[in-house]
Amino acid sequence: MILILQNGKVLKKIKLLLAINFIMFFLQNTYGQSRKYLDDKYVADSLYNSKQFNSAVKYYKKCIGDSSSKRIDFYYLACSLSQISEEDSAIHYFKIALNKGLRYNSLEQIDSDPNTIIFRTYESWGKIRMKIKENTEVYMHNGASNEEIKQELILRVERDQKYRKIDLEKMYVNDKSKIDSLWKIQKKIDLDNQTWLREIIIKNGWPGISLVGEKGDNAAWLIVQHSDNDVPFQEYCLKYLIKAASENETNTSNVAYLTDRILINNGYKQKYGTQFSLIRDNDNKAINLEFKPIEDSIYVDRYRKYIGLPSLQRYKEGALKYYQKEVINK
After folding, report:
1. 257, 274 in Cβ contact below 8 A?
2. What is the model's pLDDT at position 327?
3. How do residues 282-326 score in pLDDT, each as one tens digit?
4. Do residues 151 and 58 share a domain?
5. If you average pLDDT over every residue of the chain, what do you get?
6. Residue 300 CA to chain centroid, in angstroms?
7. pLDDT tens-digit readout, 228-252
8. What is the rounded distance in angstroms from the CA atom of residue 217 to the CA atom of residue 146?
9. Alpha-carbon dihedral of residues 175, 180, 186, 191, nearest 10 degrees?
10. Three-state DSSP class for 186?
């Protein structure tokens, strides 16, 4: 203890380790995924895709018995049961999925989902469809209960993107002082955004979808994502973001991106593989990307699927295509 008090660097390092350990404990106990669950989920999905529905039922039941289970597991269990003509059980689990917030990205998908063809022949489909529609409309709701905060978030995220959306190195290739001065302006914008958002969170909790709509929620997340100058603030926000995700108040992928950002910023390996560095040629064009260290390369795609992200390979292809259009987002 005396050594710690006399050595500020040691104390700072211990505080950092304690903070990271707390964050990782928090993640594992509130939004973590056990490997047993991920293994069962992988087998269940594979069986479902190969139309082995009897066996899929067995593994989806294992999934829903795990604390890591999500509403999508109840949905696929219900779909599997419908395929083997167990109507009552299928409806039972479908209703559980709905009560957990099952929804689609658009109203059109309700009647075009190939997995629910058999459900649409059931007498109870009308009531089930009404609940799906209700859940989907809540998700799509853009009016927000606080229009003032929503509009302020949208305005602030536009400022957040002001200099990040342009390739300053290419625009001012021979003027480093100009690049530095513009980034100083951007940093001031970031600090102002962080101060404002912190006050909003203190008063209202995370500004989620029901408060500011999906666009406002994503704007709040992006402000935090770009708060690399204040990692404790990112850690503070992550707790609220995880809670919001559990209540369908934010996209679960936001949790993955912010988790990885915090881990990388603290010198740890990332979990979901969302963070990377671009590799450019002599003309400053993106030709490849290199993922920052990943904690578990074997399970990373399963973690990504759990939280709603595409495979690492698809993500890489999409990111390269985006950056090769010369849209820079640092």
Report:
1. yes
2. 46
3. 777 778 999 999 999 999 999 999 999 999 999 999 999 888 775
4. no
5. 86
6. 14
7. 999 999 999 999 999 999 888 999 9
8. 12
9. 180
10. helix
What residues contact residue 241 under an 8 Å CB cut-off, 6+ apart? Answer: 206, 221, 224, 250, 254, 255, 258
Per-residue model confidence as pLDDT tens digits over 267-287 = 999 999 999 998 888 777 778
Long-range CB contact pairs, 56-64, < 8 A, 24+:
56/80, 57/81, 57/84, 63/37, 64/93
Question: How far from each other are the two terminal CA atoms of the chain, in whole angstroms?
Answer: 41
Please, what is the angle between helix 8-30 and helix 252-265, to 10°? 160
pLDDT, one tens digit per residue, over 27-77 is 544 456 788 999 999 999 999 999 999 999 999 999 999 988 999 999 999
Is 40 exposed, middle or buried (CB count within 10 Å of its CB: 0-12, 13-18, 19+)?
buried
3-state SS class at 270: strand
**What is the rounded CA–CA span in Å between residue 73 and residue 65?**
10
pLDDT of the residue at 1 = 36
Count of structural domains within the chain: 3
Residues 24 and 128 occupy one common structural domain? no
Helix axes 176-204, 209-225, angle to 10 degrees: 140
Q: Token pair for residue 24?
A: 């990782």
Residues 220 and 306 in one domain: yes
Same domain, 115 and 190: no
**CATH number of the structural domain spanning residue 105:** 1.25.40
Q: Give the domain-ending residue among 94, 116, 140.
A: 140
Is residue 329, in this structure, part of any structural domain at all?
no
Cβ atoms of 284 and 170 within 8 Å: the answer is yes
Residue 304: φ, ψ to 5°: -65, -45
Residue 328 is assigned to a structural domain of this protein: no
Residues of the domain holding 128: 37-140
Tokens 């600090």 sit at which residue?
191
Lowest mean pLDDT among 172-176, 197-201, 251-255: 172-176
